[in-house]
Design goal:
Strands 2-1-3-4-5 form a five-stranded parallel beta sheet, sandwiched between helices. About 15% of the residues have low confidence. It is α/β, with parallel strands linked by helices and about 240 residues long. α8 links the parallel β4 and β5. The chain contains nine helices and five strands.
Length: about 240
Amino acid sequence: MSSVRLYLFLLVGVLGLVGCEQDRSTSSPAASSDDTTASAAASAPDPADTSGTEARVLVLGNSIAAGAGVSPQEAFPALLQRKADSLGWDVQVQNAGVSGETTAGGLERIGWVLQDSVDVLVLELGGNDGLRGIDPGVTRKNLRGIIDTTLSTYPEAHVLLAGMQVPPNLGQGYARQFRQVYPTVAEAYGRVTLIPFILNDIAGSDSLMQDDGIHPAAAGHRLVAQTVWKKLRPLLEQIRTQEPA
């Protein structure tokens, strides 16, 4: 059995419990405010690099973004902040991840978390939809609702859509339909960049996953951050070259 398939089988048991136990009162932006300020620069910024426009990155996700099982400083949103800080870039990464979150919950929260300007939305939701057997059409509609709300509020914003997969024991047809949700959504927009599977090369690895076999360990979060950064850095560079309003 491949490591990814093993991961997907384990995903049913553990993330389902996480979703059931999560206190929904943490869904407000205030609940994740500590995550947004927890990271520090990996190295001192270059004081000569003062050019560029400030950029704000919003990470809207579930237990992966929330950093379940690791410290806030080790979760991938904090690592994205460190990468930007190490370059001396004026970038703020806000972690709005909530363990157990579904796309429906994200759609409910998006208006609230968009009160501050957003240049890039990292959208990491949908895994819990799959675990609950939600119709992929509903997941697709909710993701599009989140993206539509973001782009209607901030038309110049970009979206990074982080894909997820579900275990085949939910049915091969369902798994296939769910997997197609993300590329289908991404293809519908000109300002959406797809990350096909956010845990690619991480799922199933004993050294990169926690003992539950589901959530990334600190080393796994470093690889997730690298995967996201490959797509995020070009967008930030583009934003930095724009003239201030």
